[in-house]
Amino acid sequence: MACPKITLFHNPQSRSAGVCILLEELALPCEIQLVDFKDKPAALLAVNPLGKVPTLVADGAVITEQVAIFQFLAELAPEKGLSPAVGDPLRGPYLRALAFYGSSFEPAMIDKALKRDSGSAGMSPYGSIEAVEAIVRARLAQGPWWLGEQFTAADVLWGASLSWITQFGLLEKTPEIAAYLERFSERPSVAAAKAKDAALTA
């Protein structure tokens, strides 16, 4: 399968940093369009009126939302093994790891940051912040990766996100979370993405 021409609208101080790490893991070529949040480029707004990053364009197809982007990219390079295939017993847990991040964990962290009441458990997309945090700690305590021994694109999403979430104090860096982040930070893709970001913004 030929790789599509990929363009990523990116700001190093945003969620798109994780996408850059995933691109390094997958060794996928990509054109980077830097986004200044104070003056969002017309090219970004033309494909994503919300003006959010990451926004990905692949052969003209627009992909937004972190979970969709991670799943899309990982499946472009199946030989890298970062996306369990259909029929693999880890496929369901992998998709759950991605969806849980986007539909439960990040909304919970945003509510926590804004000191916003999440409403009744029945109306909230995640139930309670405490329950969400407990799931994360329990999952990472089983380590070394989110699905156990196999490193996947879900770990790039979680590793990159937990790095900034713990940095801002939204989630306590408990021993299991600290150990997970240390393992993640040692991957060559993390250093490579950071080096490229430094060169882009120099």
From TrEMBL:
Q: Which InterPro entries match?
A: Glutathione-S-Trfase_C_sf, Glutathione_S-Trfase, Glutathione_S-Trfase_N, GST_C, Thioredoxin-like_sf
> SUPFAM superfamilies, per this entry?
GST C-terminal domain-like, Thioredoxin-like
CDD domains, alphabetized: GST_C_8 (cd03207), GST_N_GTT1_like (cd03046)
- Which keywords has UniProt assigned to this entry? Transferase
PROSITE patterns per UniProt: GST_NTER (PS50404)
Which residue spans adopt a coiled-coil conformation according to this UniProt entry? none
The source's superkingdom equals Bacteria
**One Gene Ontology term of the molecular function aspect:** transferase activity
Chain ranges of the GST N-terminal domain: 3-81
Pfam families named in the record: GST_C_3, GST_N_2
Q: Does the keyword Cell division apply?
A: no
Protein's UniProt name: Glutathione S-transferase family protein
